[in-house]
Here is the input.
Amino acid sequence: MTRRLRLWVLTAGLLATAALYAAACTELPGFGGSRHPYGDRAVRAALQQHTANAVSSVNFDQRAFDTLGEETVLFACVLGTVVLLRRTRDEKRVPPEPADVPAALRRYGLLVLPVTLLIGLYVIAHGQLSPGGGFQGGVVVATSLHLLYIAVDYKALERVRPLGLFELADGTGEAAYVLLGAAGLIAGSAYLANTLPLGTFNTLSSGGTVPLLNAAVGVEVTSAVVVLLAHFLGQALEIEGEDDDAKDKGRTA
Here is the structure.
């Protein structure tokens, strides 16, 4: 295929996409009006499924398959980071020197850490009831652990962050979401269909599979962010290879 032909194909595709987009926009409700067909249907479906938070109902029930794709993208990013940033055989890491931390920053960080951790866990656990959920709460939980890096030092963070366990938890959270989708197939319905008992509205056990899928995402996102930051922080530490050692010996000689 020549360059000119590729440009013509690209132009035709862009024009077709623009035409479809324009046609779709003509059927949208007026901005600021009182007619919200999609929102009304989403809220109605959330109430029918005993999920107080309509956003979580959309994410983990009405379009749960799309959320699986989003979670898988994050999982793939972590896997790629682990592979690309792994330490090679001829490299060795030099432990970072401890830095002086102001007393006020140390006290504030250690005080805020348990509060941040509790807030993150609360956001995950109440995702089907109030704004938040596994994605948001997972980031908060992972961030709380890294307050140790800011308030104390990197060694303190390493002690509460067994990287192997978090890598295992990352895969477990992804697998849990995939396997929970099979509950719909076992019940004779579609994959990721909400077929579990819906429970009592506005309680932690309400929503059927919504709180379970939300918890799986919380585990995966928390672990993914911890693993990502661990490998990026590892790149910030001093890493020496055999060539660097030879150069250092040459300098000292």
In short: DSSP finds eleven helices and two strands in the chain. Residues 91 and 240 are 5 Å apart (CA to CA). The chain has a mean pLDDT of 88.
